[in-house]
Amino acid sequence: MKKSTLLLLAGLFSGAAQADVGGYPVVLVHGFQPDNLASRPTGSQVSNNGAEYWAQYWRDRADVRIDWPSQERVAGKIASDYVWPKLQQMAQNSTCANGCIFVSHSTGDLVTRYIIDNQALWLQNAGLQPLNIVATFDFAGAGGGVELADLAVNVAGGSGLIDGALRLAISLWLGQIPSPSNVGVLNDLRVNTARQLAAFPDSRVPRLRFVGAGSDFLGATGAFLPGEDDGVVASHSSCGAASAGSFNSCSRSVTFDGKLTSVSGPTSFMPYHYPMLMSEGYSHSDVIANSATDEVTAASNSVNYLNGERLQFNTYDENRGWWVFSSRYRIVRNSDNTSMSALVYQAAN
């Protein structure tokens, strides 16, 4: 009996350890869920949706999830009814006392930025210790806004003309044409609005970016997104560029497929935003899945956490092509058979 109990406890502690990233507890912040606009989930439905959102890779590697419904606004009920209770719980449990890492996807990037900007003041006012967030891993981050959200809100309000191509793009993304009563967090995702929300946090938490340039929609949405995009978010947003624009990479010296050449990329980034991994083949949803979609390259192969610890990826350069037509490429080792999320998880451990 004692032996069985010890084995059970060992298994429990082993499972808890596996949830950490490099010894740091992981906090998940999911992205926009289009079906919420019609279904308007509450209570356990929100939690169930959050669990399903991360099911492919990160759910079982995390300690805490901040789940929120997409029919609400970031600075409204998302913050008061869903974020704040979780922040209190984490502070009371000392979850981040020795540091923690937030992992966000899509709109979760914007929600996380709002958390970073406000959590210390909120918790101190409640007599609690602020969270010690050492870094965020932002996959397909939408913190710089989403042009499709601008179009959807305009169409919902009757102020935008809608042709067949636009109707198809919005329908593929949202599954519906929205009405004024069900745009929710789309209001916050409009490019100018998103870029003004908690734009300059006092905290210097490094925002590490992981970006794709594929599409789940066979390119149907790309016509409405400037530069390279992942089918939902343009690269100016996912890379963390300081301003909206048409960019073909997160770097000015390496393309999404790893080719080492001069390319149109941002010259500056939002505060403490650092693009790391990129891939031409990964779509908006692929980046948090558990399958290798394409080779991955690095805009930067190493960045420090807030406490000075370093996240580093092993890359190699090689020539591809024949003779004078060959080009030099930079590839993250093992990315041909390892998902982007797994590459990040393994490097962090």
How many structural domains? 1
Percent strand equals 15-25%
The best one-word shape is globular
Computed over alpha carbons, the radius of gyration is: 20 Å
Number of helices: 11
Tell me the total number of β-strands.
11
Query: What is the structural class?
Result: alpha/beta
Low-confidence stretches: 1-18
Helix percent band: 25-40%
Q: Report, as a whole number of angstroms, the end-to-end distance.
A: 34 Å
Give the overall average pLDDT: 93
Order of helices and strands: HEHHEHEHEHHHHEHEEEEEEH
Task: Please list the strands of the largest sheet in the order they lie side by side.
Answer: 2-1-3-4-5-6-7
**Main sheet specs:** 7 strands, mixed
Description:
InterPro entries: AB_hydrolase_fold (IPR029058). Keywords: Signal. The model is unreliable at 1-18 (pLDDT under 50). The chain has one domain (24-144, 189-348). The chain is 32% helix and 15% strand. The protein is α/β, with parallel strands linked by helices. Strand 8 and strand 9 form a beta hairpin. Helix 4 packs across helix 5 (108-125).
Provide the fold topology.
Elements: H1 2-19, E1 26-29, H2 36-39, H3 44-53, E2 64-66, H4 74-92, E3 100-105, H5 108-125, E4 133-139, H6 147-156, H7 164-174, H8 186-189, H9 191-196, E5 207-212, H10 235-238, E6 273-279, E7 297-298, E8 302-304, E9 310-312, E10 315-320, E11 327-332, H11 340-348
Parallel strand pairs: 1-2, 1-3, 3-4, 4-5, 5-6
Antiparallel strand pairs: 6-7, 8-9, 10-11
Key features of this structure:
349 residues, alpha/beta, seven-stranded mixed beta sheet, two-stranded antiparallel ribbon, 15% strand, disordered N terminus
